Amino acid sequence: MKRYETGEAAPYGIYMARNKVDIRFVGADGEGLEGRKGAVYTRLPTWLVVLVGPALGGMFVMAFPLLVIASIIGTLGVALVRKLSGNHAYVARGGWQPAAAFFKKDQAEPGTAEQDPELEQLEAEVAERADVEKRR
Where are the domains positioned within the chain? Predict the structure, then answer.
């Protein structure tokens, strides 16, 4: 089967691109094949279009009411869920709370912490400077 690229002159017929999923019709011999950029088209035989066309049309006619009903149910379902959950959406909303991880941390027994002598020396120095500042 001969392949035609977009913009190339092609004979009368229906063409299908497999790599870009596109179907085009050429109405006159030598007319340029318009289509998607970079698409490669193959001419579909007329007998295939005549046989498959009504079957595809019938499938569309049978499926269209089901598609409409499904879209209506989906739209109503989404609206209902949004309506019912709108007042309580703040409960499900997550927030970044880095300190929340330490709320359940085991607390040390009072008076069991070891005192660092250097820390005691710094505390005494800070207290002494605070007294000097108060006197001024």
Answer: 3-44, 54-84
